[in-house]
Design brief:
single chain; alpha+beta; HIT family, subunit A; 3 helices; binds guanosine-5'-monophosphate; binds zinc ion
């Protein structure tokens, strides 16, 4: 299996590691949506969020929080977007789990277009029930 992020983790591809802990590491995205766009990548090769062992989640999220704070401090950010794409349909192109941390500034011309949908009649409750039932089955 050839995976860019595994190769970067194993130093087979030279790259500038910004941070690492036992379960995650951070690098700059090579095609940034904004300057300082960071990829926070799991050390284990898991395709997406659904595959990450629960044991790894705490350290991955703590790395996300630390690097996000550092970005805010380093670039005086007003905010950032935290994104994890799951599946080709959602725009995932590398199937090794990662969060995008995308710095945001006023008038930075980055658009996540939202076409808002409306629930009609009982639809809202129906969706809520379907999700609650699915959660119940996972327990
Ligand atoms: P995805 O589309 O899977 O959510 O995100 C993959 C990201 O990895 C993309 O934003 C892409 O620019 C970035 N990327 C792809 N190849 C490389 C690489 O070799 N080095 C780095 N630093 N980023 C990469
Ligand atoms: Zn990998």
């Amino acid at each position: 299996m050839d995976c860019i992020f595994c190769n970067i983790r194993d130093k087979e591809i030279p790259s500038s590691i910004l941070f690492e802990n036992e379960k995650a590491f951070a690098i700059l995205d090579i095609n940034p949506m904004n300057y300082g766009h960071v990829l926070l990548i799991s050390k284990g090769h898991y395709s997406d969020i659904l595959e990450i062992p629960e044991n790894d989640l705490k350290e991955i999220l703590s790395a996300v929080q630390l690097v996000s704070k550092a970005l805010v401090d380093a670039f005086s950010l007003e905010g950032f977007n935290l994104v994890a794409n799951k599946g080709e349909i959602a725009g995932q192109s590398i199937f090794h789990f990662h969060f995008h941390i995308i710095p945001r500034h006023k008038n930075d011309n980055i658009n996540f277009v939202r076409n808002i949908k409306k629930y009609h009649e009982n639809q809202f409750n129906k969706y809520a029930d379907q999700i609650r039932n699915a959660i119940q089955s996972l327990k």
